[in-house]
Amino acid sequence: MTAAALTPDDDTPRPGATESVTVRVPAKVNLALSVGPLRSDGYHDLATVFHAVGLFDEVTASTADGLALTCEGEGQVDVPLDDTNLAWRAAELLARTAGRSPAVRLHLTKGIPVAGGMAGGSADAAGALVACDALWGTGLSRDDLHALAAQLGSDVPFALYGGTAMGTGRGEQITPVLARGEFHWVFAFAHEGLSTPAVFRELDRLREEAGEQAAAPGVDEELLRALRAGDSTLLGAALRNDLTRPATSLRPDLRATLQAGQDAGAIGTLLSGSGPTCAFLAADAAAAARVAAALEAAPSVRAVRRALGPAAGAHVL
Ligand code: ATP
């Protein structure tokens, strides 16, 4: 909790004083994203390996009379500021669970691209859960927070943990993966976002058109071995995302982005989640700088960021 409203010799908040908590929460890429057949409930079973990277949103929760939400930073004009925002819904859900009113002012500082396939909204939901829990002194356990996170969305639980982890079910069942070392990533943001449901619908359409029967989802052993060894070359060769084909079908310009990173010496290229952000694994910091410079010049790219992975999950600053 920040001490802005506290006097140096008295740690009791003054009546009416504003207390606030800021939580930092990372973006994710899916190192593997294997999508099973369409289920009767409209979802797909997934097997994925989440990897948190050092691109962050911050969620600040401050005492207030009612629920209010503001936002600044990357893609702010596309972020809804009402009860469709996942951070807002997280605060309401936690308040309902704790039997209290959702009186909080939430401020989002975005570094994660909106509708970029990096789970920014999910990150904000996880951040809001942790920030409101601390602000209100709710004292929920990690398991309790995980259960609330899973109600908010498939990608929300992982944002609580960070690191590198296997996701199964719809992605909400999390098992840590043994991973060694640090990886150098470059991210190319696209000019426009891409809707996750639209990409899944396109996957189903393409599979049906080709008469393909989707297999049960699974993660290749080579990827897990590469992570255990901390071997970026092996990891680069093992990256896999079933959503690459439908995302590039909807947005053919993404092929040019992926090619530009590969031509610049990336040892792995990957669509991030449902896209349109493209992720590139580099051998070291110097190689990452070269890949980033080449992508800056690509017409299909709006902005380029470098980040290390794995990053820590949602934590109070
Ligand atoms: P995912 O890969 O988890 O499906 P994404 O990273 O592609 O999601 P988000 O940035 O989470 O995309 O945004 C998807 C949509 O969700 C946005 O277009 C926006 O309308 C809505 N949204 C709701 N809450 C938020 C939030 N806190 N930040 C950004 N977008 C939000």
Structural class, judged by helices and strands?
Answer: alpha+beta
Low-confidence spans: 1-14
Mean pLDDT equals: 93
First-residue to last-residue Cα separation: 8 Å
Strand content: 25-35%
Small-molecule binders here are: adenosine-5'-triphosphate
Question: Could you estimate the helical fraction of the residues in percent?
Answer: 25-40%
Principal-axis shape equals globular
User: Total helix count?
Assistant: 10
Order of helices and strands: EEEHEHHHEEEHHHEHHEEHEE
User: What Rg do the Cα atoms give?
Assistant: 20 Å
Q: How many DSSP E strands?
A: 12
**Main sheet?**
8 strands, mixed
Description:
It is globular, with a radius of gyration of 20 Å. The protein has ten helices and twelve strands. Strand 5 (164-168) and strand 6 form a beta hairpin. The longest helix has 17 residues, at 120-136. The chain is an alpha+beta fold. The structure holds adenosine-5'-triphosphate (ATP). Adenosine-5'-triphosphate binds at residues 78-80, 84-87, 108, 114-122, 124, 155, 193, 196, 273-274.
